[in-house]
Amino acid sequence: MPLTKTETALSQPIIQLIEVSKTYSTHGVQALNEISLTIEPGEVVAFMGESGCGKSTLLNIMGGIDRIDTGTIRLLGQEITHSTDAQLTELRREKLGFVFQFFNLLSTLTVAENVALPLELAGRDSAETVFKKVATLLSQVDLSERAHFYPAQLSGGQMQRVAIARALVHEPQIVLADEPTGNLDSKNGQRILKLLTNYCHKHQQTLLIATHSRAAAHYADRVIQMRDGRIESIDPSNTPTGTFA
Ligand SMILES: Nc1ncnc2c1ncn2[C@@H]1O[C@H](COP(=O)(O)OP(=O)(O)OP(=O)(O)O)[C@@H](O)[C@H]1O
Ligand SMILES: [Mg+2]
C-alpha cells in the first residue's frame, strides 16, 4: 500500500545537511568542513567536542541564524540554502525554538511577558489563549508562582526554565539549545536537561543540544562528537528513547 501524505512527511528527515562548509571571513577560520548529517523527526541529539570545534556554528546554521558558504541544508523538507533573510526569520519564528547559555531574557518584561513573546510575535492567538498557553508552560517548568517577577529577581536555574518555556510555548518542531546548562551548577544543569529532553520526547519535537556536559549524552538519542569543524563520530547513546525520572 502506498504511504499516505502524512506518513511520507513523517518518514522524511527533519534536517539534512549535505557537504556543508563555513569559513568566517574575519580571520579565515574554517568553522565547518564538509559536514553531512541527517536528523530524524523527534530525535534528541547532543553535539559535543572541545571549545572551537564548531558546535555553535553548526547549531546556528541549522537554526537559520547564520549562512553557509557551500553545501546544501534542508529543514522540514524545504531547502533553505538560498532562502532570503525574511524567509529565514519567518521560519525561525514559526517552527523553531531557541535556548541559549545566557538565557537572553528581556529584563524589562516579567516572566509571563517573556514567555508570551513568541505568541505575541506570531500574532495569531487571542489574549485569552496566550494567557492559557503561558500559564500551562509556566506550570510545566514549575514557575507559576514567579509569573510576575522580573528576570533579575530569579536564580540562574529559574531564568533558564523561563527561557525554556519561551522556546516551547509556540510548539516549535525543532528546538535548538546552545550550552543550555553552561551557566548552571550541575544539579540545576541536570534538571534543565531532563526537563528539555522529557518535554521534547513527549511532544515529538526534535531537540539539538550543543554541550560540554557529559550528562547530556545520557539524555540524548545520539551523541555527535565534533573535532576541527568535522564530525568525528556518531554514537547512539546508551539510553533508549523515553522519559527520564
Ligand atoms: N563570528 C566569528 N568570526 C570569526 N570566527 C569565528 C566566529 N564565530 C566562531 N568563530 C570561529 O569558528 C570556530 C568554531 O566556533 P564555534 O563557536 O562554533 O565553536 P564551539 O564548538 O561552539 O565552541 P565552544 O564550546 O567554546 O562554544 C572557532 O575557531 C571560532 O574561533
Ligand atoms: Mg559554542
State the CATH class of the domain at 41-60 and 89-236. Alpha Beta
Average residue pLDDT: 91
Fourth-level CATH superfamily of the domain at 41-60 and 89-236: P-loop containing nucleotide triphosphate hydrolases
Bound compounds, each kind once, are: adenosine-5'-triphosphate, magnesium ion
The succession of helices and strands, N to C, reads HEEEHEEHEHHHEHEHEE
Return the structural class: alpha/beta
**How are the strands ordered across the major sheet?**
6-7-8-3-9-10
End-to-end span in angstroms? 40 Å
CATH architecture assignment name of the domain at 41-60 and 89-236:
3-Layer(aba) Sandwich
Low-confidence runs of at least 5 consecutive residues: none
Which overall shape is indicated by the principal axes computed on the Cα atoms?
globular
Strand content: 15-25%
Number of helices: 8
Largest sheet: 6 strands, mixed
Amount of helix? 25-40%
CATH topology of the domain at 41-60 and 89-236: Rossmann fold
* Rg over alpha carbons: 18 Å
Number of distinct beta strands: 10
How would you portray this structure in words?
By secondary structure, the chain is α/β, with parallel strands linked by helices. The protein has a domain of 168 residues: P-loop containing nucleotide triphosphate hydrolases (Rossmann fold). Strand 1 and strand 2 form a beta hairpin. Helix 6 packs parallel to helix 7. The mean pLDDT is 91. The chain binds adenosine-5'-triphosphate and magnesium ion. The site of magnesium ion (MG) has 4 residues, from helix 2.
